[in-house]
Amino acid sequence: MAPPEPAAAAGTVRFVVLGGSAPATVQLIDALAERPPELPGPLPTGLDVVLYGRSQERLAHVAAAARLRAAQLGLAVTVTTETDRSGALAGADVVLNQIRPGGLEQRSIDESFPRQFGIPGEETLGPGGFACAVRAVAALRPVWADVASRCPRALLINLTNPAGIVTQAARAAFGLDVISVGGGPARPRRRDRAAGQVRRTESCRLVRAGVGGRTRPTVRPGRRARP
User: Fold this and answer.
1) Can you tell me the distance from the alpha carbon of 2 to that of 90, in angstroms, rounded to the nearest whole number?
2) For residue 216, is it within any domain?
3) Residue pair 190/201 in contact by the 8 Å Cβ criterion
4) 213: in domain
């Protein structure tokens, strides 16, 4: 297993998107451009967005659209593509996971087969959610291993459903610093503040969007909490 490479140059944030060939990835540029000015911490002097995916052709189209949108918004960002996951993750500061194991075809199955038992179909709850969880945890395990190996100090943002179970798996197996965006049962634990630092008792953070919730910062021992 190759050792992790050093982080990006000072002042530059390396932002890696796993599943970066999805068309919706372009919306990330808008989100980055809308960073609230009142957030604590200095703005990065450079932003390197790396889109990782399996199809170079699809990645190229998404990257071109992302560059165009960045230019329209006046956002200083470099957008590159990578089909080698290990290379994409090397030295990453932030990793956004939006991989959907099984694709939309499998989601359709997850949300339809429970109906034959009189149960609503949903990819985060019930039989459909459990089927989705089994598939996602198994598929993402090697991904989490690569994150732990290539960029162990990176902040991992998970969008893959079922969010709570996927986040718990990443934390329990590899101790990753995770934010899960979406609903889920993973519960952040209490933390202690001392000398301006936050000491974590769990390496998991949960942001519940759309179902009511809040962000609870948790960091590695000796590291400052991210906003």
Assistant:
1) 10
2) no
3) yes
4) no
Burial class of residue 165, CB neighbours in 10 A (0-12, 13-18, 19+): buried
**pTM of the entire predicted model:** 0.74
**Sheet of 94-97, strand order:** 78-82, 46-52, 12-18, 94-97, 155-158, 177-181, 204-207
Residue pair 56/26 in contact (Cβ under 8 Å)? The answer is no
Residues belonging to the chain: 227
Residue 42 has what pLDDT? 64
Using left for φ > 0, alpha for ψ between -120 and 50, and beta otherwise, residue 183 falls in: beta
- Tally of domains within the chain: 1
Please, which pLDDT band fits residue 59 given cuts at 50, 70 and 90? Answer: very high
Q: Is 217 within the bounds of a domain?
A: no
Task: Give dist(CA 103, CA 86) in Å, integer.
Answer: 22
Residue-averaged pLDDT of the chain = 80
Compare 51 and 109 and report the one with higher pLDDT. Answer: 51
